[in-house]
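Q: Could you fold this chain for me?
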Amino acid sequence: MDEWARLENECDLKRSPEVRILSPPLKTNMRDKNVLISKAVVYRKKGDKKEWFVVRESQNSEWEIAKTNVRKGESSVRAAIRMLAEEGAMRGKVLEEAGRAGGAASINGDVVPVRYLYYLMVQKGESGEALGFSETEWLEYARAVRKLANKRDRQMLSSARKVMRELEKKRKKKAKSGGVA
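A: Sure. Below is the predicted structure, expressed as structure tokens.
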């Protein structure tokens, strides 16, 4: 019995009062055994302030920046956009890469390298109910940093905020010069 079938058998939805969303087991490129994770550092403008999107994937997990596995043949940018649409019920625009990080994970008993790509994104339009996460919150920067449990996520949120400010400065400078770069 493969891993996916085993998980389906363990999760008897008829006995459970809550609905569980299962995802297939993580696939890796067996040639180089790299796992690629795309993380979306999303903000929205709320009046004159900005709010940052943080999530909990399950009730027992810690607060983090929204993430997804990059599928075979998919770019990490496209994976971030897909994840926001499918799990976050929102549209987002990738503005810039906010940073990269590496690590390792144990998958089926093998330790494999994991690469994280963080993208600064802005929410476009209104969002629906985010069904792909246990909980979501939009928080001002200081509260978002305190809420994130992972040091790497806190660092990347800081990096994304710096990138956002640089982009805003460039946009203002371009507007002052009449649109000439």
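A (continued): The first helix runs from residue 3 to 10.
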